[in-house]
C-alpha cells in the first residue's frame, strides 16, 4: 500500500466513539484464513470476525454473488419483496424446523424480534400478565436495551437507567433453579445452546431437554439464540440439531452473510401469525444485496461435505491445542463444539486470556477471548490444514515467549 493511501491508527482516537479498543494494526485485505495489514504483514485468522467469516475472506461464491447482485438491485424497502430474500427464506426453512422468517441486520435485531414475538404471542393468547422472560447468567444476546437486559452480564447492561422489566436470570445448567423459578407467568426462556461470550460453555443434554419440558409444562416459548452457534459453526447447520430439542423461535446472524450484515428470526407458522402487518419492521432487513450473499453462503455451508469438514477441523484444533498444553501446561480444558473452541486457562494463568491474544498477535495470529479466562477460536469453516497448522505454530511461539517471560 502506498503511503498516500495508508490510514494511521491514531485517526481512530480522533474520530471514533471510544467504545472499542482495536489493535494497532489496520487490515488491508484478506484471502481464505489469511489477512494482510497496510504494511503487507500476514496474519493467520483464527478469529473469523467473531464467528462471522465462515467461508474465510473473499470466498469466490460470496464475491460472485455480491458482484452479480450489485449490478441488479441493492435496496427496495419492505414496501416490496424481492427474489433473493424469498430464496434465502425458503432455504432457511429447508435447513431448519421453521416455517417463517423475519430478516434484520444483526443478531441483536434478530433477538429483539424474537423477544417481541414472544411477548406479543403471550398477550394475544394468554393475556398481559404472562410477560416474564427468563435467561441465564453469562448469556449474551446483543446490545439493544432489551437484548442487553435479557443477556446475563450486568457489566453490559448497567449504567443506562431503568431497564425493561419482567426479565430474570438464573444459572446456566441448573435445571432445579429453573424449575423452581418458572410459573404460568413465564412467557419465554431465552438461551444459547452453547454459551459463546460467557466462556464457551456446553450445557448438559439433560438440562436442554429439561428446559424444553418446563416450557411445555408452563406454556412458555423456548427461544434459541444461535447467532454464534448457527450456520454450520458446531458441525450441524444449527446447534439445536445436536440437542434432541427443537425451539419455538431461533435467531441467526453473524456468519449468515459471511461478512455482509444480516440477521434472521426463524419460527413456526402458528407463532408468526401474531406478527401482523405493522407489528414490527426493519428498513434494511431483507434487502436484496445482503440476501443474495447470504443465499450463496447458506448454499455452500449446508453442503454435507462442508459440515463434515467442520468436525474434521475440530479434530485438528483439539489435537494441536492438547499438544501445546502438554508443552506449556496453560489450559485446564479445551471446550466447545465444531469450530467454536475455547481454551480455558488453568489456575496459574487465570485472568490472562488477553495476554495470550496480544502475544499471538505479535506472532501474526488473530485470536479472541471469551471473558478473562478463555481463549476463543472461531476460524473459517473451510480453513485449510496448512492454515490451521501455521496458526498453531504461531501460537506455539507466542506461548513460548509468554511462559519464558
TrEMBL record:
Domain of life: Bacteria
Annotated localization: Cytoplasm
Pfam families named among the record's database cross-references: Aminotran_3
Keyword set, alphabetical order: Amino-acid biosynthesis, Aminotransferase, Arginine biosynthesis, Cytoplasm, Pyridoxal phosphate, Transferase
Residues that, per the record, bind N(2)-acetyl-L-ornithine: 143, 282
CDD domains cross-referenced by the UniProt entry: OAT_like
Sequence positions that bind pyridoxal 5'-phosphate: 107-108, 140, 225-228, 283
Catalyzed reaction equations: N(2)-acetyl-L-ornithine + 2-oxoglutarate = N-acetyl-L-glutamate 5-semialdehyde + L-glutamate
Gene Ontology MF term list: identical protein binding; N2-acetyl-L-ornithine:2-oxoglutarate 5-aminotransferase activity; pyridoxal phosphate binding
Entry's family note: Belongs to the class-III pyridoxal-phosphate-dependent aminotransferase family. ArgD subfamily.
This protein's name: Acetylornithine aminotransferase
Gene designation per UniProt: aruC
